[in-house]
Amino acid sequence: MAPTRRDVLAQLAALTAVAPFMHLPAATDPLDGSIAGYQDGRRRKQWTAAEVTARALERCRDAGARLRAIDVLSATALAEARDADARLASGRTRGPLDGVPVLAKSIYDMAGTPTTGSSAEWARLFPDPVPRDALEVRRLRAAGAIVLGKTAADDFAYRGNGTSSHTGQVRNPYDPAGTKTPGGSSAGTAVAVACGLAFAGFGTDDGGSNRIPAQFTGVVGMKPTFGLVPRTGVIPTWPYLDTHGPLARTVADAALLLAAQAGADASDPLALTGTWHGERLATLRDDALRGVRIGHVDWYVLRGSMTDEAVTLWDRAVADVKLAGAEVVAFDPPVTLWNYRDHFADLARARGDVRPDSRSPGVTAAALLSYFAGRTTDPRAAARLGYDAYRSFYDVLPATYEECEPLFATSQLDDPAGRSFARSRAEVIAMLSAAMRRQGIVAMIYPTMPFTAPRAADDWPDVRTTLGYGNWLGLPEVSVPAGYGADGMPGMNLSVVGLPGDDARVLALAHAYETQSRRFRAPVSR
Question: How does DSSP classify residue 105?
């Protein structure tokens, strides 16, 4: 019989209680440390969840507001923290996240708060608190986490700059001039985590929305295997690309969040259906890199487009992987950043299939109606009301609601262009898997991005990155801090990338690299 979610949480609690944990540098405030360190302090009665939650809310109202990282705060967080303290006192904790302050992204539904999507127009159209929690919020609450509120993002999570028409430009806490982008779209979550407003948070990633701000703010960001985390109750983006995952200051904390977030649920038709063994993430081994072969994809280290400082940081990161015991070998994958779109199209033609489309209008329309069906008794009226604001970003949809309405009958699973995309993805993954297996490679490494945060007002460097490649293939990827520049800004993150389904292994490898390198450094001023 497959273990239930309750069984998994119980196993996590037992494992975490006895597992060694990685401490961040000595902190005077538990919010600046790790989840395991915080829980250890609670057990020793050094602090309570209520005290630390009050402090977290204070930071959100102070630093969070100044950095424009916060969308809305919960009115029930303190009461939930007191309940967590009562559970600890009675020996009835729900697992390693019980009593842990976390944050969600603004596109998540959270009962008792409005869902703004970080859009001024959407906030005007839908000002009332929603009556439900998104599935991920519900799962985090079931694990005992204290969801403090929601963080600012780019409007509808569409871009990578952290620019919200509702709350303004999210600021990078490492930049004293206040001009550099924190990245996006999960900007507020990354900033909040870097500054210790919460221990961790969850965001979304269609083309880098977790990994971009992870690098630009020097934190850990994960894009799990596509479909591992069901997306019910979240304003939809691109259904065949959209992947939800954690942001945290350590890989171990990100792993704990993913353990609670992930797992099959029929409410998301594109979610994976296999059994999720979240308990594997409770004890990440420090020596997980020892004796394994890691593929170094030199094509993605764009030295000619990187600064000397970035190249130095990258070379040091690779050296740290080797020092942790890995054999790093050159790997030339058959499907690359430069050819993956051609492979998708060529494979579809060979099958006699329609052109694959990761942004098919039918799938997008179906996801929008499904979102409203879960939060209102009249989803079509709500979709009509919000259509123009949403469509101004997701412009694959027809120009008017009336033209879009016939698409609402589309099934996300049966849309021809979406199905063709999924078939090509499976064939491309088989090609990549075979190549890795031939060389005995368990994971790849490459820079998350080959450049540092530009000014928010400027265009980004005209340099191709692997971000979209990862989403098209649905690969699990963990982005880990690799160092800072002379100006104090985060300078590089190393991405550990595996095959779909290898999330636990990728997290373990990333943790081993982090244990060897220990590159995270909190912003001096927040």
Answer: E
Each domain of the chain, given as residue ranges in start order, spans: 5-18+25-283, 368-414
CA proximity to 250, closest of 210, 223, 214: 214
- Cα separation, 106 vs 150, in Å, equals 5
Note the pLDDT of residue 81: 98
Q: Which of 34, 74, 106, 209 is catalytic?
A: 209
- Would you say domain 5-18+25-283 falls under CATH 3.30.830.10? no
Q: Exposed (0-12), middle (13-18) or buried (19+): which is 332, by Cβ within 10 Å?
A: exposed
What pLDDT, on the 0 to 100 scale, is given for residue 280? 85
Instruction: Report residue 186 as tokens.
Output: 């999960």
Q: Is the Cβ–Cβ distance between 300 and 337 less than 8 Å?
A: yes
| Strand partners for 480 | 494
pLDDT of residue 4: 57
State whether residue 151 is helix, strand or coil.
strand
Residue 411 appears among annotated catalytic residues? no
Instruction: Write out the two tokens for 452.
Output: 């540092």
CA atoms within 13 A on the CB side of 312: 8
Identify the burial level of 221 via C-beta atoms within 10 angstroms of its C-beta, where 0-12 means exposed, 13-18 middle and 19 or more buried.
buried
- Distance (Å, rounded) from C-alpha 56 to C-alpha 338? 44
Query: Would you say how long the chain is, in residues?
Result: 526
Residue in this structure with the two tokens 């487009």, named with its chain if needed: 305
Q: What average pLDDT does the segment 509-523 reach?
A: 96
Q: Is 90 labeled as catalytic in the residue annotation?
A: no
Q: Which strands sit side by side in the sheet containing 293-296, from one edge to the other?
A: 70-73, 146-151, 101-105, 200-205, 243-248, 220-223, 477-484, 490-497, 441-447, 293-296, 327-330
Of 34, 74, 185, 358, catalytic: 185
Please count the other Cβ atoms lying within 10 Å of the Cβ belonging to residue 32.
Answer: 17
Can you list the alpha helix ranges (DSSP code H) found in 48-186?
A: 49-59, 65-66, 77-90, 120-125, 135-142
Cα gap 443→93, rounded to integer Å:
35
The 10s digit of each residue's pLDDT in 454-488 is 999 999 999 999 999 999 999 999 999 999 999 99
Q: What's the predicted TM-score (pTM) here?
A: 0.94
Q: Which amino acid is at 420?
A: S
Active-site residue (options: 34, 105, 118, 424): 105
Query: How wide is the angle at C-alpha 468 spanned by C-alphas 160 and 326, nearest 5°?
Result: 105
SS3 480: strand
Query: Is 185 one of the catalytic residues?
Result: yes
The CA distance from 309 to 29, in Å, is 33
